[in-house]
Amino acid sequence: MKIYRLQDSEGTGPYYHYGFLEISELHNENLDKWPGVYDDIEDYDCDSDLSGCTSIRKLYQWFGKEAISRAKHMGFSIVCHEIDKCHVKFGVSGKQVAFDPKYTKRKYKYG
To answer: What are phi and psi of 11, to 5 degrees?
Structure first.
């Protein structure tokens, strides 16, 4: 299956990047719309798992068009990870998934 993720060249997501602090704070203030990964995904492993979305549409719903555009100007890209479904952990919200990148069969920049 395909998982879409906003990440930099080292595979790190935007949440801890200085330019995204206000987005992280906004998400933390509205966990009904943007559930925390630990509450949403059973057995999420912060030492190995990455999070993403199962479609581009969901990724844009999660971050918003403006934030993704800004992220791209900051060096982030939308990256598609192809991974067997058996290695994917699904969030109860249906908004996000988690996976260990060691199981990624193929990855490439999207768009």
So the answer is: 90, 10
Q: Residue 21: which of 55, 61, 71, 56 has the closest Cα?
A: 71
- Structure tokens belonging to residue 91: 């969030």
Domain boundaries, the chain: 2-109
Is the overall model pTM greater than 0.85, yes or no?
yes
State the Cα–Cα distance between residues 99 and 78, nearest whole angstrom. Answer: 16
In angstroms, how far is CA 46 from the centroid of its own chain?
13
Residue 58's φ and ψ, nearest 5 degrees, are -65, -35
Q: Which of helix, strand or coil describes residue 60?
A: helix
Tens digit of pLDDT for each residue in 27-65?
A: 777 767 788 899 999 999 999 999 999 999 999 988 888
The answer to whether 76 and 8 have CB atoms below 8 angstroms apart is: yes
